[in-house]
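Researcher: Dear colleague, please comment on this protein.
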Amino acid sequence: MKKRNLKQIFKTTALALMMFSSVQAFAVSDRVVAIVGKSAILQSELDQSVAEAQHQLQAQKKEAPPLNILQAQILNQLIIQNAQLEQVKRYAIQADEKSLNEAVLKVANQSGAKSLEAFQQKLDKIAPGTYETLRERVADDLLIQRLRQQQVMSRIKISDQDVDNFLKSPEGQAAIGGQAHVLHMRISGEASASELNSTAKEIKAALAHNNDVKSLEKQFSKGKIKVDGADMGYRSLSDIPTELSARVSVIDVGQTTELITAQDGVHVLKLVDRKSNDQKALVPQFKARHILIKTSEVVTPESAKQTIENIYNRINAGGDFSTFAATYSNDPGSARDGGSLGWVTPGMMVPEFDKVMQSSPVGKVSQPFESQFGWHILEVTDTRQQDMTKEYQRRMARQILGERQFDAELDSWLRELKANTYVEIKDPALKQQ
C-alpha cells in the first residue's frame, strides 16, 4: 500500500460520501467477515467499500476485476486500516477539533460547499447521519496519517554523509539551484584507442594548471587525433548530460574527472568553480533575554502573574534585568546568563513568546505575558538578518531524502504491522490467493 497524501484521501472520502445518494443501505442483519485485533469488520462495511471501489473504477473508465477478487482486495485494505486504527488507540493518538474541522472543510470545498454548516445540510439531505459518517472517516484518515508519520519517520535514518552526498549529486544541485563552471575536452579521431587514451591523460594533466581550452585544442590536435574544447561557463548540473554531470558532482573545485570513454571519443572535464543559487535564505533573528516565573501546584497563575508584574515594575524603575533574571527566573539555563537566550529564530519558541518577541522594540522590556510554562517578561537587545542558506539547503535535502525513503519504509512497516496483528477471516472465499 502506497502512502496517500491528505489531498488524495479527502478526494476519495468526498467521492465516497457523494455516492450515498445512489448506494442503498445494505443488509440489516450484519455478519462479521473478519476479526482484526480487538475490532471486527462487518459485511456491510465490506459491501459499502466494494461499491465505492466499483464506482471509482467506473468513473476512471477502468475495468473492475472479478467480484471475488475485488472483495478480497478491499477486505485486505480494511484489515490494514483497522490494524492501524488499533495502533492509534494503543498510542492514544488524537485529532484535535481544529485540525479535523479544517480537514472536513477541505472536503466541503471540493464538493462546492463553502462552510461546514452548508456541507452538513447538503449531506444530511442525502441520508441522515451522512455528515457525521464523513467526519468519522476523515478523523480516521487524520489519525492514520499521524500514526504513520510517528512510526515510519522514526525508522528513517539520514546521516550527515547522506545529506552531503545528496547535495553534491546532480539531483541535489538542481534542487538547490546549484551551478557548475565546467571545462569540457573531447578527444576523438581515427587513432587507436590506446593513442586516444594516452592523449587524454596528457590533457588531464595539463588541465591541472591550464584553463585555456583553445590553446589545449591546438597543442594536442595532431595527425589522426582531434581535440575539441569548450568552456561551458556556469551551467545547472541538470542541464548537463547525466553521464557527465554525475562525474562532475563528486569532484572538488580545481579537479578533473577520470577519463570518460564514450562512442564519440574520450572525455575529460574540469570543475573550475561551483556556486549555489544567488538567492539567499535570510531569516530575521532576535537577541533576547527573559525572566520566567513558572506555575505549579504551589505557585498559582495569579501568584506567578503578581510576581512577574512586581519584577517588571522594579526593572522599569531602574532595576538591573540581569540581576533579577539570575535571582528570580525559573529558567535555569538562561538565568545563569542574566536571562540571555542568545540569538533566537522565529519558530524556536512557543507562539506566545514568538509573538511578543517579534513585536517588541529593541531595548524595551515587554509587558508581562503568559505561556504554557508560566509568566514571562522579555527584552530584545538586538536584531539581525541571518543567512540560513546552508541550513535551509541541508534541511531541504533531509526532507527530500526522507520522502524518498518513506514509501519503502511504509510498505515494510505495514507488512510487519499486519503480520503482528491477530487477523481472522471468517469466509475462506475472501482470503487473497
The chain has 16 helices and eleven strands. The CA atoms of residues 157 and 422 lie 29 Å apart. The radius of gyration is 32 Å. Confidence is low (pLDDT under 50) at residues 1-28.
